[in-house]
# Entry
Amino acid sequence: MDQSLIRSYLSTVYELPTLQGLLRVSLDGDIVSDPSTLPELLTRPFAVLTAYNPRSMLLPRKVNDGRHLVLRDLLVIGNYRVEACVGFEEDPDSSWREPAWLVHGMERDEAIAFGRVFRQNAVLHCRNARPELVVTDPTFDDVGKTITGNWRVRT
# Structure
C-alpha cells in the first residue's frame, strides 16, 4: 500500500458514537502506556467498516448508499450491534466524508472478510486498545497485512 495512502488512513478522523456523545479519534497518536486512560469504547474490540467507494473508486452517491445499506443489513443479520459513524479529513479545505459502521465485538478475520467482499482497501479494527489498519485488497499487499496505530483522542 502506498505510504501516502497509509498516512491518509492514519490521520483520518473518526466520529464514533458513545453514551457520552460523539468521540473524535484518529490512529496517529502517541503510544498509550495505560489503556485505562482511554475512553471505554477504545478498550473494547470493534471494527469500522464501509461499503463506499470500493478500491478508492468514486461511485455515485445512490450506488454508495445502496451498498452501505446492504453492508448494514448483513451485519445486523450476523447479530452484530451496529452504529453509524463517519470518517473524514480534518483539513478545512477538504469536503471528503465517508459514512461507516461501528461494529461492536467483531473479530479481526471477519472484518477482513467484509472488507474483501465490499472491495475496500483496508478496514479499521481495534483489539486490546490498539487500532489496526488491516489491508483487505489483495492488489495492494498481502491480505491481512497490518499497520498498527495509536489512538489520538481529538477535541
The helical segments are 3-11, 61-77, 108-117. The radius of gyration is 15 Å. The CA atoms of residues 61 and 106 lie 27 Å apart.
